[in-house]
Design goal:
alpha+beta, 3-stranded antiparallel beta sheet, 4 helices, 3 strands, about 60% helix, about 15% strand
Length: about 90
Amino acid sequence: MTHIEIISREDLLQFKKELIQEIKAIIQPSRAENKQWLRSTDVRKMLKISPGTLQTLRINGTLRFAKVGSIMFYKYDDIVRLLENK
């Protein structure tokens, strides 16, 4: 006797959503780790801080940065070190 299970369109859409979320979760951390330099938006997301807090970390010397044109870059290793020290 064969067991048949019917899958609805809604089931497939839910599966698709869950699969995409899992793939994003796997890919996203590794993308940041492969970058040597991060932009302000990436740093704020990693540290879960506001633009003002990031500016304070720059001003008081807690977080080193390099400015190229109008864009600020931060070393990935410095961000990891900051997270480990907190």
